[in-house]
Design a protein that fits this description.
The chain is an alpha+beta fold. The protein has 16 helices and 23 strands.
Length: 477
């Protein structure tokens, strides 16, 4: 039996690069070979990536770009930028740097802020240069660190999946067209170090990588060496575990997609159908639903409490659960995700002025903005045979008031329909309670003229061209 040949770093890169380029067909503007970019910090890993990518690009007619992000967090940042620029100039690789400014926080906060700003800047550079493939230098040791970090955080299969060999990350890169490729993920850092030493490649050392106050550095310098001594080759086994977790997560995603299709009604979930699922399937579905809405993933404890409240609340309860990114509400046996909206000034009465609402006068304008009520009131002019409206001469110059509902208001929508309370109209139209409080009313003295979400009161309406109807448009629409 032939001894299995260990793949070289070059062959690992070639295989991944070919697969990535086949995934994204080049456009005529990109040239026959296409375009790729690498994220270049100047450290050992990305310096190896630069030389591997350069050799591949030259052999296959690929346009290669190297992007460097200058965070300004180190006194050596300018020297690192100069090093990367010189390294690319020596190889004839197109180089561009982008400076980003960070708000200084504690160590953990700075690390996360730097990561987010770095990837957003890389995504912007890819957009500017028409690049759809961004290569990073993540390797097998990075994957092992990621899996261990996620395990320490108590993550589920999604977190324990680690990093994909290639994936789109629009929320990270702020660029939906870019695929992030990690061609060196099967390779160990030892292989990269040997490649750099063997080719005499110069690189820089970021002193922050030695700071044990960063969680990843603490693992790298304290935990990983102990694991390597007790369990040689553990990185490869961690990588296999990540692949198993990825497979499990794909199955969970498929199941969640099926359950979501069953439970979804427009933008809402049908609670009666959600009740038919086991608790684990409900959690899986809700996590997937949050993901499709680009919302932060809730903790297991929060998810459990939310599901308990939603399923056990009495029928008709106007349930509200607060998520960091939204509100979770129950209405008419439907589960809604609604945005967190700022308070409107119109909901607060001035303590010295007990007159409710805001007085105004219409002088023929097509629209009037009311920021305190969160929108614009339109005055639409009717054409011939277009229906009933207000007499403009009656309306012009008359003292009017815009306000939010206080309770007890009534409206008659048509002469052949009874006068009803606004609550009745809202319920008949299916307008949820949380929206009603942000829908203003317009009246003249005590006479109701218009209620946003419902329409005009018929008592002051008449037929004829040139008459006026009111229309409300929220700034949130």
């Amino acid at each position: 039996m032939k001894k299995q040949q260990i793949p070289t770093l070059s062959s690992i890169f070639e295989q991944a690069a070919d697969a990535a380029l086949a995934r994204v067909a080049p456009t005529p503007a990109e040239g026959e070979g296409g375009r790729i970019a690498i994220a270049l910090s100047g450290g050992l890993d990305s310096s190896a990536l630069l030389h591997l990518a350069h050799a591949h690009a030259r052999a296959h007619g690929v346009a290669l770009y190297a992007f460097h992000i200058h965070h300004g967090l180190s006194a050596n940042a300018d020297a690192w930028l100069a090093h990367c620029q010189q390294a690319c100039a020596a190889l004839g690789v197109t180089f561009e740097a982008r400076r980003v400014e960070l708000v200084r926080k504690d160590k953990t906060g700075t690390e996360e802020a730097a990561r987010k700003s770095r990837y957003a800047a890389l995504g912007a550079l890819c957009r500017e240069h028409g690049v759809k493939l961004l290569f990073t230098a993540h390797h097998q040791d990075d994957q092992a660190e990621t899996v261990l970090l996620q395990l320490l955080r108590g993550s589920g299969p999604a977190g324990l999946s680690g990093m994909d060999a290639a994936n789109a990350a629009p929320e990270l890169l702020a660029n939906p067209e870019v695929v992030m490729v990690r061609p060196l993920l099967p390779a160990s850092r030892k292989q990269l170090a040997a490649y750099v030493a063997g080719h005499g490649i110069a690189y820089i050392n970021d002193e922050s990588n030695d700071d044990p106050r960063f969680a990843r550095n603490a693992l790298r310098h304290k935990v990983m060496p102990a694991l390597a001594e007790a369990f040689p080759g553990f990185q490869e086994r961690f990588a296999r575990s990540a692949q198993h977790a990825q497979s499990a997560q794909r199955l969970l995603t498929e199941l969640a997609q099926q359950d979501l299709a069953m439970c979804l009604d427009g933008d809402c979930l049908v609670i009666a159908k959600l009740r038919t699922l086991s608790t684990d399937r409900s959690y899986n579905l809700l996590r997937h639903w949050f993901g499709t809405r680009n919302l932060r993933m809730p903790s297991a404890a929060w998810l459990s409490e939310m599901l308990t409240q939603l399923l056990e609340a009495r029928d008709g309860a106007q349930l509200l659960v607060t998520h960091p990114d939204c509100h979770v509400r129950r209405h008419r046996d439907r589960l809604h995700l609604t945005p967190k909206l700022a308070d409107l000034e119109g909901t607060r009465e001035d303590e010295f002025d007990q007159t409710p609402g805001t007085a105004f006068v219409w002088n023929g304008e097509g629209e009037l903005a009311f920021p305190a009520y969160g929108g614009v009131l339109y005055f639409d002019v009717l054409g011939a045979d277009a229906g009933a409206g207000l007499d403009p001469e009656w309306l012009r110059g008359r003292p009017l008031v815009i306000e939010f509902r206080k309770g007890g208001e009534r409206l008659k929508p048509a002469h052949n329909r009874p006068t009803r309370g606004l609550k009745y109209h809202y319920q008949a139209l299916g307008i949820p309670a949380w929206e009603r409080g942000r829908l203003p009313l317009v009246r003249a003295d005590k006479q109701m003229l218009f209620a946003a979400g419902i329409g005009m009161d018929c008592n002051q309406l008449g037929e004829g061209a040139g008459r006026i109807t009111l229309r409300w448009r929220s700034a949130e629409d």
